[in-house]
Amino acid sequence: MSSEDTSLRRSYEDLLKQGNLNQNNIQYWLEQLQQLVLDKGLPMETENERKVLIGEKSRYNGESGGGCSLRGRIWKAFLRIRIIDANYYINLIDKGPSEKTSEIDNDVFRTFASDQVSNQKHPHRIGI
Fold first, then answer.
1. At a CB cut-off of 8 Å and minimum separation 6, what does 41 contact?
2. Which of 38, 40, 32 is nearest to 15 (CA)?
3. Mean pLDDT of 42-71
4. Are residues 68 and 34 part of one domain?
5. Distance between CA atoms of 26 and 16, rounded to whole angstroms?
6. Which of 3, 44, 70, 126 is least surrounded by Cβ atoms within 10 Å, i.e. has the fewest?
7. Are residues 7 and 49 in the same domain?
8. What own/partner pairs with CB < 8 Å and gap ≥ 24 does 51-60 have?
9. Residue numbers of the domain that contains 9
């Protein structure tokens, strides 16, 4: 990982920590986070994050942030999701696939058609 990526990752980590510690002015904090994303983009995934994405490694082996990638934690912040209740999630999964699953799959394919990690994790989507 380049020193530029390391520095950018540290900026995100510091900002995420600041938001977790100070919930009083969430809108200002989210605007800072959004501005950082727009100005600098996101750093490359770490080797551990890549291994998790393609299923070679458990989410809970040594990454900070409770096993969620930096990108995932940023999305959770934007969506204002602090904690995901496991039982609620399991109940959603038990309901089965959405009636929109095929539309979602097509959108995912178009969005990630040239993404190597996505194609390694979901080879059945190549050529849809």
1. none
2. 32
3. 67
4. yes
5. 11
6. 3
7. yes
8. 53/117, 53/121, 54/117, 54/120, 54/121, 55/121
9. 3-84
